[in-house]
Amino acid sequence: MSGLFQRLAQRPGPTVPFTIDGASAEACAGDFLIGAILLHRRALRRFEFGSGERAGYCLMGACQDCWVTLAEGGRVRACTTLVEPGMAVVTGGVGG
Question: What confidence score (pLDDT) does residue 93 get?
Fold first, then answer.
């Protein structure tokens, strides 16, 4: 993986498959979506008011900077949402 984050220690438990913009990815059971995405990507989403990319800010659900879209159309805060098997995140190709 070559994302913004690096896992310092392997967590016990099963891996959880999910997708980011249709690309296969894996997380560890119990990972929050923000960490799982940033293990694979350098950014979480595009900035809605410019051409920049965002990677979250507070990492605890207060700043509202980590909202991401799921393939079925829902929006979730990546820093407070656990990765679920088969979850499909749509970022619009950011941070690959």
Answer: 61
Q: Which residues pair with 67 in a beta bridge?
A: 77
42 neighbors 4 (Cβ within 8 angstroms): yes
> HSE-up of 73 (CA within 13 Å, CB side)?
0
Residue 28 has pLDDT above 80, yes or no: yes
For residue 27 the two structure tokens come to 């997380």
Which pair of structure tokens corresponds to residue 81? 């949402």
Sheet architecture: strand order including 67-70: 23-28, 15-20, 88-90, 67-70, 75-77
Q: Which residues pair with 69 in a beta bridge?
A: 75, 90
